[in-house]
């Protein structure tokens, strides 16, 4: 069933790489890919949670803001180990230059009536990753997220 | 993502959430949450079985909570899992919607 879904959405899953279409529905393919990497590399549950959270936030930003929800573009994910200590995920797109690591909107915190329902994505990425770096490409963007590789 | 409700004494509506509150899960409950928020003034969000919470899921909690508060009601979150609670705290939601791990404490927040 999963393979059929990936064929339908043109997603590709190779070892350490995943290609997605720029559709929010394709984000459902990321978690099985991360789970497979976690099993292969003995990544602990809390780190898996952090990876899935940060990837969902970053990818949904690319789909909604980078590609403005146009569905016929691609997003390339790749995974690398950095020695024994760090796990690195790179996300490449072909959207106009878009620095997700900027300040963005800051949610208010004085009263629930003034709390913005959005704007939490990048603060969550900063909180749950070890580092986040944005790099403009000649045609697109590369966002690199790093996580500790400890298995809890 | 599953959502069910249970009416408790004192006019409290317990909303039992079960599954992943990711983009897909948030879309699955948004309408139901807004309907519940429109008819209940005391909302207990039971998050024991929520295994994942992202920013779209946060939105699914914050928007109906704002609606309840604007009508003079109260909202409390009950028993989130460790990483889910970290997301709530990282987003400062805990300062706005009290989190309690004891059911009686959570009910007391609503009945105060």
Which residues of chain B form runs of ≥5 with pLDDT under 50? none
- How much β-strand is present in the residues of chain A? 25-35%
Global shape of chain B = globular
Largest sheet of chain B at a glance?
Answer: 5 strands, mixed
Our Rg estimate of chain B from Cα atoms comes to 12 Å
> Helix content range of the residues of chain B, please?
40-55%
Q: CATH homologous superfamily name of chain B?
A: STAS domain
Portion in helices of chain A: 25-40%
The spatial strand order of the largest sheet of chain A comes to 1-2-3-4-6-5
What's the rounded overall pLDDT mean of chain B? 96
User: What separation lies between the terminal Cα atoms of chain B?
Assistant: 31 Å
What is the helix/strand order of chain A? HEEHHEEHEE
CATH topology of chain B: Transcription Regulator spoIIAA
Averaging pLDDT over every residue of chain A, what do you get?
84
Count of discrete alpha- or pi-helical segments spanning 4 or more residues of chain B: 4
- In terms of per-residue confidence, which ranges of chain A show pLDDT below 50 for 5 or more consecutive residues? 1-8
Largest sheet of chain A: 6 strands, antiparallel
Total of domains of chain B: 1
* Helix and strand pattern of chain B: EEHEHEHEH
Name the beta content range of chain B.
25-35%
Topology readout:
The complex is a heterodimer of chains A (152) and B (112).
Chain A: H1 2-9, E1 12-14, E2 17-21, H2 30-41, H3 45-66, E3 74-82, E4 86-93, H4 121-128, E5 131-137, E6 140-148
Antiparallel strand pairs in A: 1-2, 2-3, 3-4, 4-6, 5-6
Helix pairs in contact in A: 2-3, 3-4
Chain B: E1 2-8, E2 12-21, H1 23-39, E3 42-53, H2 55-70, E4 74-78, H3 82-90, E5 99-100, H4 103-111
Parallel strand pairs in B: 2-3, 3-4, 4-5
Antiparallel strand pairs in B: 1-2
